[in-house]
Design brief:
GO terms for molecular function: hydrolase activity, acting on ester bonds; metal ion binding. InterPro entries: Metal_Hydrolase, TatD-like. It holds the Pfam family TatD_DNase. The protein has one domain: Alpha-Beta Barrel (TIM Barrel), CATH 3.20.20. It is 35% helix and 15% strand. It has nine helices and eight strands. Strands 1-2-3-4-5-6-7-8 form an eight-stranded parallel sheet. It binds zinc ion.
Length: 294
Amino acid sequence: MIKLFDSHCHLQDSRILKSAPKLIKEALDTGVVNFAVNGVSEKDWHLVKEMSDTYPSVIPNFGLHPWFISDRTPDWLDTLKGFLASTPSAAVGEIGLDKGSFGKKIDFTDQVEIFSQQLRLAKELNKPASVHCVRAFGDLLEILKSLGPFPCGVILHSYLGSAEMVPELYKLGAYFSFSGFIMSMKESKAKKMLKCVPRERILLETDAPDARPKLVDSKLEFFIGSGVSNSKEVVIGEENNSSSEENINHPANIHHVLAYVARLLEMEEKELSELSYENAVRIFSYEGSKLVQK
Ligand SMILES: [Zn+2]
């Protein structure tokens, strides 16, 4: 059976938290053996930690997402350092920059400051960081250059940047992670970009409960991430998400991302699953990680 690693998701999200045990089991049954679960604010770091303590397959990540920086407490950075210190298996994420329709309402100087603090922390701790970037790739490159390189890796999650930026980002230590959002890119553009990404830096993810694949491979089962559908909280990811149940993504849908990316790369699904799995194991094998044999 194909083995997959969901390199970025949010199984602690209030829309699916209650059904997370079921989602993890169903995804595991299809061959998804690990889930990098990313916290987004001080309010959900404890949920990510609990999930990691319960499920050996969950790799915890703690970070303050740019959409939630206005809710931060004065102690946010110390709290984050505390979570990372008490959870050696954790990486940093989700952090980032956003100039999209939601992100542009959030002070960009603050975004840069908070992103940089967390990126420095990841580097100091020799851990990878999972990065969100919407319409701010120029700023991202500048910051990565000034603080980098990042030998432990930086995961550019749901990467939708240009093909031209790939080599520079690669040099700084970037991994390129693809989710269902890639299906919203023009196919020829996505294909060109994918072909520029060195194979040892390709990752696959679902960003569940967001990024529900639009283009579904009819040969594969499609999973609906049922859960709490009437949440009023802001959803993470692209702006066009709604919280309705049929839009809630499931980590088992990574098979649709695999099928789509493999087709664009003109590669066998099996080969892409193996290489993206090996890449994920490499980046998440820092000191203290659950993936490192004691
Ligand atoms: Zn995310």
